[in-house]
Design goal:
233 residues; mainly beta; Lipocalin; 1 helix; 10% helix; elongated
Length: 233
């Protein structure tokens, strides 16, 4: 008659041990104070954001904001995706690029500028964000051969081509045409050569990175055409 009692005691002890082990494995969700590493992003060439991550949570500080948006991890086909359902805000990143979406605005091109301990992170000042003459109004780039274009508020700019081995400065940018889709411009180089570029309000996908851009851009210089994608600011 004593055998059944002897069996029950170890079984109860075993169940209690398993329950305690299960409870000890449950960890509380990380808090904002646990996020000791941060990343600084420059979005669409003019807005600075900071993100901090701990565990499966990410906190995002939008440009000019003193508050942080808490986000939970979500499924993504590639890269990492975090979402805040109540504010309809999302943050997607892959490597050194990211995209941020809010109900009012979407930043489609964010580049990682700095990362590290939050006590040492430096936030860059973006030239021209106060509508100064040096403010960037258009950035574009393309491949085959690799080229890039920057146009500034004061009507000047730089065309870099042949994979960055050559650069041409130009001034006197003038708009020569505008309709619902296309804007055309012409400018003069320092050697008094004519440079033209066209900006189409059609979404463009970069063939190398897969990033979406606001415009299709085509530059004509020295009878050579350079086609790619661009973003206005």
């Amino acid at each position: 008659m004593t055998c059944p009692c002897w069996i029950k005691i170890p079984l109860i002890g075993l169940l209690a041990s398993l329950l305690l082990a299960g409870c000890s494995s449950l960890q509380p969700a990380p808090e904002f104070e646990d996020a000791l590493q941060g990343q600084v992003w420059i979005c669409d060439g003019q807005d600075v954001m900071e993100s901090r991550q701990a565990g499966e949570r990410l906190w995002l500080q939008l440009p000019g904001s003193d508050s942080w948006i808490a986000m939970e991890t979500a499924r993504a086909a590639s890269g990492s995706l975090f979402q805040n359902q109540s504010s309809n805000t999302s943050f997607w990143s892959k490597g050194k690029r990211a995209r941020v979406q809010t109900p009012q605005k979407t930043w489609i091109q964010c580049q990682l500028e700095n990362e590290g301990d939050i006590t040492e992170l430096e936030h860059p000042q973006i030239a021209g964000t106060d509508n100064s003459p040096e403010a960037i109004t258009l950035k574009a780039r393309g491949s085959y051969p690799g080229w890039s274009l920057e146009v500034r508020q004061k009507g000047s700019g730089t065309l870099t081509f042949n994979y960055g081995t050559e650069a041409i400065e130009f001034t006197d940018v003038k708009q020569t045409h505008q309709d619902l889709i296309t804007r055309r411009y012409q400018a003069q180089t320092q050697d008094d050569e004519q440079l033209e570029y066209k900006v189409d309000n059609i979404m463009c996908i970069d063939v190398n990175s897969g990033e979406p851009f606001q415009h299709r851009v085509e530059v004509t210089f020295q009878e050579q055409q350079y086609k790619g994608c661009g973003q206005s600011f």
